[in-house]
């Protein structure tokens, strides 16, 4: 680990960003060049003190998870992300299919959807980035670690994860999640095999569905979701596919002027309040 070079690289990339680059507003009294440390720390889900120590070349070796979060917060491209990992003494992550690094272009799209539930998912169903509204509607997955970041794993190991969907639709979603996992399991470099082995041991329900060998089930474009404060919503889910990585950008919308659109607007307010309080 090259602490001095890592510190310099982090400072340089932070100072090269503008608030608008990461979806933040520029305050009237801003004098700091680039982003403030606390802004980057919040975007990466780490403490400001920890980032401060890294930038002063006196912090511990950051984990790959922290480095991935910093790469997203600093909007690093693939080459810059690889350089960051090597400076920290870790091998560069794999590229292409199966990569969990979200491109700056996809993150810029998210930044322009602050009041819309939207999130980037890996081909295995791991949540990689979310808007504030998506966190309110679908759950905040930033703090999750390991297999718990993967939707299908949570579905069969954490009953509360199903609460976002209307109960009558649970069987359909379960079949779709298993079918998607089976499809991912034959892709080179996928972690799907690890997920399958764990779920076969933990969930008889998963094992029964897995043994049906279904690969044709697909999510409906229109989904019924629910939230404890605004109730049930019927939302359209549009998917943008990144053909280089297999990552998907999911965007949830409602027809303008509808009751569902009003509920989404309420979610945006709830998300803003939650973000400000954190």
From TrEMBL:
SMART domains reported in the protein's UniProt record: HTH_XRE
HTH cro/C1-type domain segment(s): 34-81
PROSITE patterns: HTH_CROC1 (PS50943)
SUPFAM superfamilies: lambda repressor-like DNA-binding domains (SSF47413)
InterPro entries documented for this protein: Cro/C1-type_HTH (IPR001387), Lambda_DNA-bd_dom_sf (IPR010982), MLTR_LBD (IPR041413)
Protein name: Transcriptional regulator
Organism in which the protein naturally occurs: Homoserinibacter gongjuensis
């Amino acid at each position: 680990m090259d602490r001095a070079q890592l510190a310099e690289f982090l400072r340089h990339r932070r100072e090269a960003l503008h608030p608008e680059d990461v979806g933040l507003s520029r305050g009237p009294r801003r004098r700091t060049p680039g982003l403030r440390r606390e802004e980057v720390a919040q975007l990466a889900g780490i403490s400001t003190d920890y980032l401060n120590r890294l930038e002063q070349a006196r912090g511990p070796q950051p984990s790959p998870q922290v480095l991935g979060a910093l790469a997203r917060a600093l909007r690093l491209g693939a080459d810059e992300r690889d350089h960051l990992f090597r400076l920290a003494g870790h091998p560069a992550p794999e590229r292409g299919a199966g990569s969990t690094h979200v491109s700056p272009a996809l993150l810029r799209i998210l930044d322009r959807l602050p009041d819309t539930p939207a999130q980037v998912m890996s081909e295995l169903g791991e949540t990689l980035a979310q808007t504030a509204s998506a966190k309110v509607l679908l759950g905040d997955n930033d703090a999750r670690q390991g297999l718990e970041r993967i939707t299908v794993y949570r579905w069969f190991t954490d009953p509360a994860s199903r609460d976002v969907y209307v109960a009558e639709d649970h069987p359909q979603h379960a079949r779709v999640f298993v079918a998607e996992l089976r499809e991912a399991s034959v892709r080179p470099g996928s972690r799907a095999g690890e997920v399958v082995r764990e779920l076969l041991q933990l969930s008889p329900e998963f094992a029964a569905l897995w043994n049906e060998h279904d690969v044709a089930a697909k999510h409906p474009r229109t989904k019924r979701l629910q939230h404890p404060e605004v109730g049930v919503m019927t939302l359209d889910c549009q998917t943008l596919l990144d053909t280089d990585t297999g990552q998907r950008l999911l965007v949830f919308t409602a027809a303008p002027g509808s009751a569902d659109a009003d509920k989404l607007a309420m979610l945006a307010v709830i998300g803003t309040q939650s973000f400000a309080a954190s």
